[in-house]
Amino acid sequence: MYKKIYKAIKKYDTIVIARHIGVDPDAMASQIALKESILYTFPKKRVLAVGTGGAKFAYLGTLDKLENVNFSESLLIITDTPDRKRVDSPEVDAFAYKIKIDHHPFVEEFCDLELIQDQKSSACQLVLELIRKTKLKANVSIMGKLFQGLVSDTNRFLFNTNAELFSLLSKMVKEYPLDFPKLYQELYMRPFHEVRLQGYIEQNMKVTEHGVGYVTLTTQILDKFSADAGSAGNMVNNFNYIDEILVWATISEDKKNEIIKINLRSRGPIINGIAEKYHGGGHKFASGARVTTMEEAELLIHDLDRVCEEYIQSMEGETK
Ligand SMILES: [Mn+2]
Q1: Distance between CA 298 and CA 215 in Å, rounded?
Q2: Structurally, how many domains does the chain consist of?
Q3: Rounded distance from Cα 107 to ligand 1 centre (Å)
Q4: Distance 152 CA to ligand 1 centre (A)
Q5: What is the distance in A from the centroid of ligand 1 to the CA of 26?
Q6: Are residues 269 and 204 in the same domain?
């Protein structure tokens, strides 16, 4: 499979690399690192990394405009995206040949060649393996970006982390002198207003009887901290490892889209079933939902509390 991808890269003079909408560091690092590796190996090729919203990850590089591309003679590579509707690029079907490189659970087949390995930590890990197993070349800048995408998607080696990943990284670090403090700083620097909003959440989180922590962020509060529902939702990862809390949620008013966004995390109870019930979904321990009224949000919290109660009972059963 890796060899086939390399052959296609070698064959086409123009290559466009896309990834999913709602860009994150793994999506953007995988596309930019792959672009740089292809250009480093084949300097005469034209390679474009396309998509919207890249400005907030400017340390990874800048994105290209999809201009003057003769689609019927070009290769499209899509990283980190399981389904066609989430590809952040127009003209997906106009390309001569399409390749998917992804680590999400399979959703649909829409490319000529699909490298899908859902047990891998990140799209960056797959790009790293592609470079390792073919004649694609790399340098310290390319490896640094792959490392950042990988750190971000594993939440600093918490999720999908195994011996294979550490052994790959061991080789990477031996061969390329990565500047870890700089790479982590770029990933995790944030403006003070976000830290102040985090403080607000810490002060105002309520906890239900069976350990659901939740906070309601109205438009008024979000405005006060110059935040929007998106950035508030991203903060949900910061509330793990609290004794009294098994499942936690941010409930954010999204005035622009006239919905209420709910971000959910768990350190035990399985929550994606509840997320699905409330127009969302996701992974077992990390999900999202969207509702239209605060009453619905309250019902969701109530359901989560019941899931926590069942979880506590099942744990007690195990220790008896
Ligand atoms: Mn990813």
Answers
A1: 11
A2: 2
A3: 14
A4: 9
A5: 5
A6: yes
